[in-house]
């Protein structure tokens, strides 16, 4: 969020500078246009004014190109960060799901604080859901990929623990879809 505000401020300042530059160029053009006709001598100040106007227009073109490249760079960084956050949240959620479905957990149930683990699951579920929705709205990702993870986590939140084979099969399917998803996301944008 902070990066978006920073980018917005940067673009606002650039827009303001472009407006001021355009205003200065307009004043210069008006001043050159309204030079009295009876003045036939071209002075050094007139030449300097014209060169300053041309230089200002050149700077304006450079500023526009720079702003365009910055915008593309910020968009690419945001996209990459969104995808990385999504996969990190998915990894955390899957890790907790595997922990809950493991035989070690089921064997040592008395020594483990279930409330803490289910709070972790609930928090990881919420974070993953948020990152998933952000990914869908920002880049139109394939909804089925994240829905599998959400459905499995939801089952586990309701304490219907799957066996390890079911979890392993689901994880393999998710990893296959994850590779396809990455290819789609990077090729789309």
Question: How do the helices and strands line up, and which of them pair or pack?
Answer:
Blueprint: H1 2-33, H2 44-101, H3 103-107, H4 114-139, H5 143-157, H6 164-188
How would you explain this protein's 3D organization?
- This protein has helices at 2-33, 44-101, 103-107, 114-139, 143-157, 164-188.
- By secondary structure, it is mostly helical.
- It folds into two domains: 2-73; 78-188.
- The chain starts with a helix and ends with a helix.
- The model has no long low-confidence stretch (mean pLDDT 70).
- The chain crosses the membrane at residues 12-35, 47-67.
- Keywords: Membrane, Transmembrane, Transmembrane helix.
Please identify the structural class as seen in this structure: mainly alpha
In whole angstroms, the N-to-C terminal distance is: 21 Å
Q: Would you identify the regions where 5 or more consecutive residues have pLDDT less than 50?
A: none
User: What is the averaged pLDDT score?
Assistant: 70
The number of helical runs is 6
Work out the strand percent.
Answer: under 5%
Gross geometry: rod-shaped
What kind of sheet is the major sheet?
A: none
- Helical proportion? over 70%
Number of domains: 2
Order of helices and strands: HHHHHH
Radius of gyration: 29 Å
Q: Give the beta-strand count.
A: 0
